[in-house]
Amino acid sequence: MEMSQAVVHEAVGLGSAGTLGGRARPSVLAARDARRGLSFADHMTLVLIGLVVVLVSLPRLRRFALRENETDAARMLRVLWTESEAQGVSLHPGILGALFGPGTGLQNRSEDVEVLEDGRLRRHGYLFDVVESPAGEANIAAWPWEYGRTGLGAFSISASRGVIANENASGLMSGPLRAPDGMELAAARGWRALPRF
To answer: Given Cys at both, which of 39, 78, 91, 143 links 173, Cβ 3.0 to 4.6 Å?
Structure first.
C-alpha cells in the first residue's frame, strides 16, 4: 500500500513532503504551523487572561464564603436556642457543649460542631457561647473565630429580642478572647434586629 501511494504522489507531482512542483501546498503549511503551537505572545495573552479571571473571582468567592458562614451562624443560634429550651438547660457561659452530649438530638444533627475545652462551640468559622447581660438575661452569641478570614458580623439571640446582628466593622469581636460584651448586648448599641430566615 505504501508503494502505491508513493507512485500516486510521483505521478501527480507530489513529493513525499506533500509539495506540488517543489512548493509546499497551503494545507500542509497550515498543518505544519499548527504543530508548531502558540507563539510566546499567545502564551502571555492566555496567562494574562487567566490572571484577570483569578483576580476578579477570588474576592467574590471570599465574600461568598464569609456570607455563608454568617448566615450559618445566625441559623445555628436559633437551633441552639430551641434545643436549650427543649432540654430545659439553664443557660450560662460554657454550657453549650452540654447540648451535644450523648443521646441528644444535636449530636446526631450537627457532626461538624467542635466542642471546645471551655464548653464553647466552634462551627464554620464562628464561636458560640452564652453571654449574660448585667440584668442577668442570657444571650447565646456567635462571633468570628478570626475576623475577616472566617466571618465579619456578630450575632446574638435572647428571649426578649430574638436574633440581633452587629456589623462588627472594627473587628473587636473576634477569637476566643474577644467575645461580645454583655453590657453592649443589653444596651443594643450597634445591634439591629435580624429578620427571620
So the answer is: 143
